[in-house]
Design the sequence.
């Protein structure tokens, strides 16, 4: 492996995950120039749970810190955006997952990163993305009886008076 | 005053006794009014702010206005509260606070009842107040009030033991439980010198007894909102406040009498100054100390408070008794 | 309200004939020590907390949704209202995100003004924390001392931008107002004053026996737990992780200043108390250098297009706010309004550890632990 010393972090992640889960796990990989050149991976939805655990537990990746997670409504699709940091390797990583617009669902990472718990609840609350396996997926900001998901682009106010 | 009680009970004497009691009540009320005023002023100055200065000259009528507001306010009671206990609690808290004042010798002649067991009378009656506090906590049917009331009960009972034990040394030294005789016995040297350890224990335990900073847990505002009197308003709340400050008055008197030589001057050469002035000066020093502590100290935690009482103060108080008894049996 | 956790076994098993009951205590949303409209449902047995469920959202204004209908400059005032105790860092993080996307160069003078404003605000924020935290602990006076000194900072910031708390000072590409004449000297004077004042804070509180006993060993966790729960700022540094975005992912001109990153290893409330005061010291150091290096003249706005349209794409930037890592994610479609704006609020993330810390704690510690997290409800609820 000596000739691979010059691999960029992004290439390293792609190789490592590719070795473990096969090429199909990564849908896309690129450097996001707009976000301070953060390596960005688009992971396949079905394999996200295993990849997530691998991201945290693998010694050469070791992304033990979840900085942020949220969803985005692109009208034709939903996306999840995760930002990780590895204190061990001092590396940033962004992960994206593309979800269908109808009944978007992705597996929860709350048991891998405890910090994901409330963020996932918030995303569920405001965008209606379902997190499979979340211990307590309830609304967090809005009242439990709220109708609709406000951050969706097609959201209409339930009561115009309010 | 004392002679009055020993004379046969005529209508005239009864009237005098009642009038004297009312006079004392007025004195206490004036004290409470201005203790609150000075507390706010002193703490204000310590905190770089002027304190009350709007109502009346220098804000002197601020407390009067506050009290009038409390008395005129609607008397609210939670729907689920225990009606009788809710009404009884403030009385239970206040009455003993006022009755203990009867045995306090303010000067040689100004004392209402010269009991031979003055110390015991004070200690016994003052412990009734805790019943008022628990009753208030229970009757309010409020969880914060309940926690506050129970904390208070635990605290007051624990510290009462240490408080009483710290007085025992003085009783041994004086050979009397009569408060007037205790003062007389301090002509040569005030008890604060031979009983300094007891003085410290007494001061600390007194703070806890009075529920004042740093032992103001029962009403810990930041966690229990206001503790046992959270549901009280209007004149019932005023009675709790009154009880608290009257206790401060009583405790100040006790400290002055037991440790600071009551009405005695600091040196016989200064005896031209009347005893009552000396009394007031010493008493005020103690009250000032309380305000000072309140502006300085954070609040102790309830479990630490209890272990401090039982593992710290009480053994020290016993040690003090032992030392005093040893000293007395060897030298006297 | 209380779910997910099986009822825990009582530690002290009661005598069989005495029936004991756990009590459900509702703390907040109106409670003096929840620092705003935060609600906590605690299950207590005696004074021991068995379970705590935080309930929030009482101050949720939907900032992220509102922002989707505003131009970037119009969002800035909304950022002020998130963490209203440190609005300057919030201003900065939004501008920084847009500037990163557009690759804008910021004039040096504007960058210095931003740093001075942010560090002054950081001190002000920590002072509020110091005062209110001691108020929670039951000491009354520190609050007023802290507010006196915070007032001088607010006066300075007021002079700079005309507002005391919601500054709306920074713009994409620079700052709105230049420093008025003599302002930099005033900042220098304040730094000297505060340096003398800080030891008095320690004298009044830090050595107090009661205070130390109340905080030492309370609300303790280790570095792994801190990382697991995505804690940041002082909440992370108190476990020994030396991490400060100002130095480790340097932004603005922070690489020009010498300053320490105070850390502690205990991970308890007392460590967090010391760290926040130590951070005031470091902020003063940065200010001192910034005032010295402050350029005599120059522009305060860079070359910015009249309509701000970041290129299509997405960005995520994070900076160090007084409460920890504040981040902004922007998804742009090349329009003058963001397609999606996401705010990573440090108070919200840091608060997640609270239920974990409270289980088994004494009721009286609840206030001490909650206070030591240093939350601002405007930020938790966004």
Sequence:
């Amino acid at each position: 492996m000596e000739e691979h010393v010059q691999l960029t972090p992004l290439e390293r992640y792609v190789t490592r995950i590719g070795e473990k889960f096969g090429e199909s796990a990564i849908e896309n990989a690129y450097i996001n120039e707009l976000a301070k050149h953060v390596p960005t991976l688009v992971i396949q939805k079905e394999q996200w749970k295993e990849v997530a655990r691998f991201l945290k537990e693998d010694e050469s990746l070791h992304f033990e810190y979840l900085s942020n997670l949220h969803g985005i409504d692109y009208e034709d699709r939903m996306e999840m955006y995760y930002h990780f940091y590895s204190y061990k390797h001092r590396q940033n990583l962004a992960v994206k997952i593309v979800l269908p617009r109808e009944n978007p669902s992705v597996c929860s990472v709350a048991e891998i990163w405890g910090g994901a718990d409330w963020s996932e609840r918030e995303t569920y609350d405001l965008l209606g993305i379902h997190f499979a396996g979340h211990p307590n997926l309830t609304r967090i900001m809005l009242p439990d009886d709220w109708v609709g998901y406000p951050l969706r682009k097609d959201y209409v106010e339930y009561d115009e008076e309010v | 005053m004392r002679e009055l009680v020993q004379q046969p009970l005529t209508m005239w004497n009864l009237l005098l006794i009642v009038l004297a009691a009312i006079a004392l009540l007025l004195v206490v009320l004036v004290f409470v009014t201005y203790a609150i005023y000075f507390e706010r002023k002193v703490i204000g100055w310590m905190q770089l702010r002027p304190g009350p200065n709007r109502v009346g000259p220098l804000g002197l009528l601020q407390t009067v206005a506050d009290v009038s507001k409390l008395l005129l306010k609607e008397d609210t009671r939670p729907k689920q509260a225990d009606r009788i206990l809710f009404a009884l609690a403030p009385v239970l808290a206040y009455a003993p606070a006022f009755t203990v004042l009867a045995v306090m010798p303010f000067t040689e002649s100004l004392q209402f009842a010269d009991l031979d067991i003055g110390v015991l009378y004070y200690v016994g009656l003052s412990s009734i107040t805790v019943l008022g506090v628990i009753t208030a906590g229970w009757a309010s049917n409020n969880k914060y009030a309940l926690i506050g009331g129970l904390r208070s009960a635990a605290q007051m009972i624990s510290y009462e033991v240490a408080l009483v034990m710290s007085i025992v040394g003085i009783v041994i030294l004086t050979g009397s439980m009569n408060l007037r005789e205790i003062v007389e016995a301090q002509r040569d040297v005030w008890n604060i010198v031979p009983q300094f350890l007891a003085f410290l224990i007494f001061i600390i335990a007194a703070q806890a007894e009075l529920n004042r900073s740093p032992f103001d847990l029962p009403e810990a505002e930041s966690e229990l909102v206001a503790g046992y009197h959270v549901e009280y308003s209007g004149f019932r709340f005023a009675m709790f406040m009154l009880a608290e400050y009257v206790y401060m008055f009583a405790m100040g008197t006790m400290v002055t009498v037991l440790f600071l030589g009551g009405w005695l001057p600091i040196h016989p050469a200064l005896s031209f100054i009347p005893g009552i002035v000396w009394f007031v000066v010493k008493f005020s020093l103690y009250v000032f100390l309380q305000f000072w502590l309140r502006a300085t100290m954070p609040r102790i935690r309830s479990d630490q408070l209890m272990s401090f009482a039982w593992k710290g103060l009480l053994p020290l108080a016993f040690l003090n008794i032992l030392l005093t008894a040893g000293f007395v049996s060897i030298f006297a | 309200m209380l779910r997910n956790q099986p009822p825990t076994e009582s530690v002290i098993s009661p005598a069989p004939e005495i029936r004991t009951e756990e009590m459900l205590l509702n703390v907040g949303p109106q409670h003096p020590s929840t620092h705003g409209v935060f609600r906590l449902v605690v299950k207590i047995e005696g004074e021991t907390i068995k379970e705590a469920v935080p309930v929030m959202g009482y101050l949720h204004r939907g900032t992220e949704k509102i922002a989707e209908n505003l131009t970037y400059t119009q969002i800035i005032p909304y950022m002020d209202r998130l963490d209203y105790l440190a609005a300057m860092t919030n201003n900065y993080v939004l501008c920084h995100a847009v500037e990163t996307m557009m690759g804008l160069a910021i004039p040096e003078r504007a960058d210095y003004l931003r740093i001075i404003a942010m560090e002054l605000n950081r001190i002000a924020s920590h002072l509020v924390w110091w005062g209110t935290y001691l108020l929670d602990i039951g000491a009354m006076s520190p609050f007023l001392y802290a507010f006196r000194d915070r007032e001088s900072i607010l006066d300075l910031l007021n002079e700079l931008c005309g507002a005391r708390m919601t500054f709306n000072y920074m713009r994409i590409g620079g700052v709105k107002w230049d420093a008025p004449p003599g302002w930099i000297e005033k900042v220098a004077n304040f730094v000297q004053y505060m340096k003398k004042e800080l030891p008095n804070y320690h004298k009044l509180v830090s050595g107090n026996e009661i205070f130390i006993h109340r905080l030492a060993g309370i609300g303790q966790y280790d570095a792994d737990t801190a990382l697991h729960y995505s804690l940041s700022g002082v909440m992370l540094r108190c476990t020994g992780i030396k991490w400060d975005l100002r130095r480790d992912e340097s932004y603005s001109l922070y690489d020009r200043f010498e300053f320490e990153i105070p850390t502690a290893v205990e991970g308890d409330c007392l460590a967090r108390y010391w760290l926040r005061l130590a951070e005031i010291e470091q902020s003063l150091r940065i200010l001192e250098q910034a005032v010295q290096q402050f350029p005599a003249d120059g522009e305060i706005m860079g070359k910015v297009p009249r309509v701000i349209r970041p290129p299509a794409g997405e960005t995520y930037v994070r900076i160090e706010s007084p409460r920890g890592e504040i981040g902004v994610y922007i998804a742009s479609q090349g329009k003058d309004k963001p397609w999606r704006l996401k705010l990573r609020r440090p108070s919200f993330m840091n608060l997640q550890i609270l239920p974990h810390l409270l289980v088994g704690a004494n009721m009286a510690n609840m206030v001490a632990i909650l206070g030591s997290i240093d939350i601002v409800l405007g930020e938790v609820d966004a």
In short: The mean pLDDT of chain B is 84.
